[in-house]
Design goal:
Blueprint: E1 3-21, E2 27-46, E3 51-56, H1 68-80, E4 85-91, H2 102-117, H3 124-132, H4 138-143, E5 146-151, E6 155-158, E7 166-171, H5 178-184, H6 196-205, H7 208-213, E8 216-217, H8 220-226, H9 229-239, E9 244-247, E10 254-258, H10 261-274, E11 279-284
Parallel strand pairs: 1-8, 3-4
Antiparallel strand pairs: 1-2, 2-4, 2-5, 5-6, 7-10, 7-11, 9-10
Helix pairs in contact: 1-2, 2-3
């Protein structure tokens, strides 16, 4: 096999809680992460020329070591000891710098793809350990599904898969800086922590409305103070009949859960027409068949890239 095509799927947070801060400045998190079916396409091809070449459909996207997928390929060759060459082509669909793990999922797909191309037979756990060197979201993007994430996001415990649910993603025409949001967060001033255990119970019961009712993100107040439009989008999601709505990650994407595709498409059209927002997507939740496999990363070493100081 000389080439492979993979889907790097986006993620949303059903809950996001900050439960502490470490001496090194990183925050301890407790959150429920969920894969969705909005994806980037990653095409990887072996080349006779050694090294990594990368290109994307976004002309402004870095194509060197500043790109996390490029770094993932370099890491793979370093860890495996293989003198290889690859050309990587990324077709981006996931909004960039949006709280959807778009870069992390490209890196995850790159590691998975190279593992298959070069038949190194690394386990999923091994790939997740490698991914953690790139960023705290990369292990989840390799595991995928419905997970409780703790630590800095790398300690993953599989949860009951979320029932297939329609999701509308709205990425306003601005990006929130993860580092800036965490810098402004005062963990001693968090008004209300998410009811993570209630959402876990609702997942076990397959009760999507209860999940929607209890979605919560402690970063919202900080990001909304910077970008009030996020609060307006949330309000309008509910007006459009969403079961529940929340900001994903540190923003700026806001999503709503819907019972039917018809309702989701109607909301999508509303935001495109009334807000003139280009990046609005209708998708569904995703659960891999292997989501019941026990995967637990518990590494003390922090990632190289994580803007949560």
């Amino acid at each position: 096999m000389n080439s492979i095509i993979l889907k790097g799927r986006a993620k949303i947070n059903l809950t996001l809680d900050v439960v502490g801060k470490r001496d090194n400045g990183y925050h301890d998190l407790k959150m429920i992460m969920q894969t969705v079916n909005l994806y980037d396409t990653i095409y990887i091809r072996k080349t006779k020329v050694l090294g990594v070449r990368l290109k994307s459909n976004y002309s402004w996207l870095p194509t060197n070591e500043k790109n996390i997928a490029y770094k993932a390929a370099e890491l793979f060759f370093k860890e495996s000891g293989i003198d290889g060459g690859v050309a990587i082509e990324i077709t981006k669909r996931i909004p960039v710098a949006a709280g959807l793990a778009g870069g992390s999922t490209d890196a995850a797909a790159t590691l998975v793809g190279l593992n298959r191309l070069y038949e190194t037979h690394y386990s999923k756990e091994k790939l997740m350990e490698m991914g953690l060197q790139l960023g705290a979201d990369v292990p989840f993007c390799i595991a995928r599904g419905t997970m409780l994430a703790e630590g800095i996001g790398e300690e993953l415990t599989p949860l009951t898969p979320m029932p297939t649910t329609y999701v509308v993603l709205v990425k306003p025409p601005f990006s929130a800086s993860t580092a800036a949001v965490y810098k402004e967060l005062d963990i001693n001033n968090i008004k209300e922590h998410p009811k993570t255990d209630v959402v876990i119970q609702a997942l076990e019961e397959g009760n999507v409305q209860e999940i929607a009712n209890n979605m919560s993100n402690v970063l919202e107040d900080v990001t909304i103070s910077m970008y009030p439009e996020i609060a307006k989008i949330k309000e309008e999601f509910m007006q459009q009949g969403a079961m529940g709505t929340m900001m994903s990650g540190s923003g700026s994407t806001v999503f709503g859960l819907f019972e039917t595709e018809e309702a989701a498409q109607k909301a999508c059209k509303y935001f495109k027409v009334n807000h003139d927002i280009r990046e609005v997507y209708v998708t569904t939740t995703y659960s891999p068949s292997s989501s019941n496999t026990k995967l637990h990363q518990n590494r003390k070493k922090g990632p190289r890239r994580r803007g949560v100081k």
